[in-house]
Specification:
single chain, alpha/beta, four-stranded parallel β-sheet
């Protein structure tokens, strides 16, 4: 896998002016935690591009030897999550011998948590990926979200954790799927000009015993741009109200008025990544729980 990374990096436009470095991610689990951690760190260095060497599911001596050989052949930074003391020691000794920076990324957080709780960690491999109740809750959330996407099965919207509303191309579906992967049941409904809300949605009031309704908004310019790109993928080049700037501005104005009138919080997705929008929604859910289910009030614009 790692041998293909350099070619991939160059194909994506990383030129010779960039600083390339080898980055080894060694894990006795799936390595997802390490990859997310490494991605967040590397994003802070615009001119440095990692050549990734991913070594997941290190369970046997043979697998460990392959990882050690790769580190020795391609010296660089080493990040790892290894619970077994013998494998940790083997990797750390190699890094010390070669003078390579290395870090067990979970150790500081585990140590801090252990000190706070006054108990020892279990050091169980891949415990975060066990097929426990939370895993099945995520599957259930994904199934629900897919079944209630784009206005489907409105009668079941009251069972959602979150209901997303917005005009076309405000990232309702991708945001819903991201939240579903975190275990939240999400329904979404597009707002269509001159079409009234269904009674099931109009009745939602953001109380603790019902779903949190969130309005997604964006700048009209951004919506026009995304809609034009969408039409191009469909080989549709006709000028319609769908991409008319004045019409889109009217759509967005009507959506904002609706959200304000109903007291539903708004999140501006113009310059937000899906993850950022999802984080803002999770924060709203947490705040509502902390406030005992009180209405969030109108006009909260994130």
């Amino acid at each position: 896998m790692s041998e293909e990374i350099t070619a991939t990096a160059l194909s994506q436009g990383w030129g010779p002016a960039n600083v390339f470095f080898h980055l080894h991610l060694v894990s006795d689990s799936t390595g997802e935690t390490l990859q997310a951690y490494a991605q967040a760190v590397c994003a802070q260095f615009d001119e440095a591009k990692p050549i990734l060497h991913i070594h997941p599911l290190i369970r046997s001596e043979r697998q460990m030897e392959r990882a050690l050989t790769s580190v020795e052949d391609n010296p660089g930074l080493v990040l790892y999550t290894l619970m077994k003391p013998d494998k940790r020691e083997a990797l750390e000794q190699l890094c010390l011998r070669l003078g390579l920076p290395h870090l067990s990324v979970l150790d500081p957080a585990i140590a801090m948590t252990g000190r706070y709780l006054g108990i020892e960690s279990s050091h169980r491999l891949g415990r975060q990926h066990e097929l426990d109740q939370r895993y099945f809750a995520r599957i259930d959330a994904l199934n629900y979200t897919l079944a209630h996407d784009d206005g489907q099965n409105v009668a079941g919207f009251h069972q959602a954790d979150v209901v997303l509303l917005g005009i076309s191309r405000t990232s309702k579906t991708p945001t819903g799927l991201y939240l579903a992967n975190r275990g939240y049941k999400v329904a979404n409904m597009p707002l269509v000009p001159n079409v009234a809300l269904q009674p099931e949605i109009d009745a939602l009031d953001n109380q603790s015993n019902g779903p949190l309704v969130v309005g997604l908004i964006a700048s009209p310019e951004r919506i026009v741009q995304v809609r034009r790109n969408r039409l191009l993928t469909l080989n549709e080049r006709r000028e319609t109200d769908y991409v008319d700037a004045d019409h889109v501005r009217d759509e967005m104005t009507a959506a904002r008025k609706l959200f304000l009138m109903k007291g539903w919080p708004m999140i501006d997705v113009s310059r937000r990544a899906i993850e950022e929008t999802a984080a803002a929604i999770i924060a709203l859910l947490s705040r509502r729980r902390a406030e005992g289910g009180l209405s969030l009030g109108g006009g909260n614009d994130f």
